[in-house]
Amino acid sequence: MTKIFSLGKNWKIYSKEYATKRPELTFTCEKEQCNQRDLHNHGCYYRTAWTKHGRFQIPIYRWRCPECGQTLSVLPDFLVPWARFVTPVREAAIKRKAQGQGFPHVAQGVVSPAVSGISRRTIKRWWRCHLDQVNDASQWVSGELIQAGIDTDLLRLHSQGVNPTLTDTVRWFATLIQKYFQALGRGSTSLVG
Ligand SMILES: [Zn+2]
């Protein structure tokens, strides 16, 4: 099992803090038959973090249940379990793409030439993945807004009804999220939960 924690803004801070010392976290086993046994420290493994400037090895700490043997790894939140590049690199790529840069340009811009190893295909995949998430997320948020009785012409906001491109959806999502947080700020509790 993997859990993600905020353990420093980037790999540098994380390494400084946790190169030889595990984060002070305690866990109990979630399995019913283990009756909330405390997990024991269980060493670490090393993982490569691909950043803008190069590849770095960082320790990932593990815990283990003495009862059932299940292990738990704690990832810092600048890493995504299945992804090679650290989150800031992915975010920078999405941002550049959203601003209208082409895939090759983005691929060159987000990592230094020394790193080489990020292809346009990778950027394309990140972008598609981002758009999928935006689609799902904006549907969810507009559902919430409608349920909360917020009077907005949600669909009209979405690119005046003409075949919206996914990039339009990205923009639309930004507007929705803004409204959503405005609504939360007004104390519209029906939105929470
Ligand atoms: Zn257990």
Q: What order do the strands of the largest sheet run in, or round the barrel if closed?
A: 1-4-3-2
Measure the end-to-end span. 25 Å
Q: Would you list the SSEs in sequence order as H and E?
A: EHEEEHHHHH
Strand content: 15-25%
Radius of gyration: 21 Å
**Count, helices:** 6
Compact overview of the structure:
The chain has two domains: 2-76, no CATH class; 87-191, no CATH class.
Q: What are the key terms here?
A:
193 residues; alpha+beta; 2 domains; 4-stranded mixed β-sheet; 6 helices; 16% strand; disordered C terminus; binds zinc ion
What does this structure look like?
- The chain has 193 residues and is α+β, with helices and mostly antiparallel strands.
- It has 2 domains: 75 residues, no CATH class; 105 residues, no CATH class.
- Helix content is 41%, strand content 16%.
- The chain is built from 6 helices and 4 strands; from the N terminus they run E-H-E-E-E-H-H-H-H-H.
- It is flat, with a radius of gyration of 21 Å.
- The C terminus is likely disordered.
- Zinc ion (ZN) binds next to loops.
- The site of zinc ion (ZN) has 8 residues, from loops.
How are the SSEs ordered, and which strands pair?
Layout: E1 2-5, H1 11-18, E2 40-50, E3 55-64, E4 71-76, H2 87-98, H3 103-110, H4 120-147, H5 154-157, H6 166-185
Parallel strand pairs: 1-4
Antiparallel strand pairs: 2-3, 3-4
Helix pairs in contact: 2-3, 2-4, 3-4, 4-6
Bound molecules: zinc ion (ZN).
